[in-house]
Write a structure and sequence with these properties.
With 197 residues, this protein is mainly alpha-helical. Helix content is 63%, strand content 2%. It contains 7 helices and 2 strands; from the N terminus they run H-E-E-H-H-H-H-H-H. Helix 2 crosses helix 3, helix 2 crosses helix 6 and helix 4 packs across helix 5. The longest helix has 29 residues. The radius of gyration is 17 Å and the shape is globular.
Length: 197
């Protein structure tokens, strides 16, 4: 596979960079009564999926989760430790991993375009994350699933804004530095204009 020509050290650096970005975005935090805060970390997950692709993006997220598991305060609000994996946000964190795979798969299923990137962030970064997060939150908190789903609508406007920001940033980065993206190696002759649509 042509993508394997990229040096392993470059891949590891990019994965580590996005893990750090997800941690930093965790400092952007709006607490909610439900116990699940609005956080900037989902923006980092969306960007990881768009830029790193389906194979590498989950590795960045797993690094963050591994750091949290050993007790480092890398999650939103400075949280860490094994307790977060049995709390109301546990399903959302699992959703990050699966969602980043879905984002990468959709975004890189063809020519990288703004509409494909936007669709990827909505499906993988919102829908998939909610599908994992809401049932676990309902189970942990003891709140009925329908009420938990209804209360989760409070996150939707912010998540849609994050999806739009991730799309704009990823398209701009693709234009400025196409080699940051998986297919940049396999399609080295692709002109920058090919992403304008």
């Amino acid at each position: 596979m042509a993508d394997s020509r990229r040096p392993l050290s470059a891949d590891l650096a990019r994965i580590a960079l996005f893990a750090a970005l997800i941690v930093v975005l965790g400092t952007v935090l709006v607490p909610l009564p439900s116990g699940v805060p609005i956080t900037g970390q989902t923006l980092g997950v969306m960007l990881a999926g768009l830029v790193l692709g389906a194979r590498r993006a989950p590795l960045a997220i797993l690094i963050v989760l591994a750091l949290a598991a050993i007790g480092l305060p890398v999650l939103a609000g400075g949280r860490g430790g094994l307790g977060v994996f049995v709390g109301p946000t546990a399903g959302y964190m699992l959703g990050w991993v699966v969602g980043s795979i879905v984002i990468g798969a959709i975004a890189h299923s063809g020519r990288f375009t703004w509409w494909r990137a936007g669709l990827a962030t909505i499906v993988g970064g919102i829908l998939v994350v909610y599908l994992f997060g809401i049932p676990v939150q309902a189970w942990v908190t003891g709140v009925p699933l329908d009420l938990t789903a209804l209360s989760s609508l409070a996150f939707l406007p912010g998540d849609l804004i994050k999806a739009a920001i991730a799309t704009v940033l990823a398209v701009a980065l693709r234009r400025a530095y196409p080699r940051a993206f998986p297919e940049a190696v396999t399609r080295s002759a692709t002109p920058a204009a090919s992403i304008a649509q």
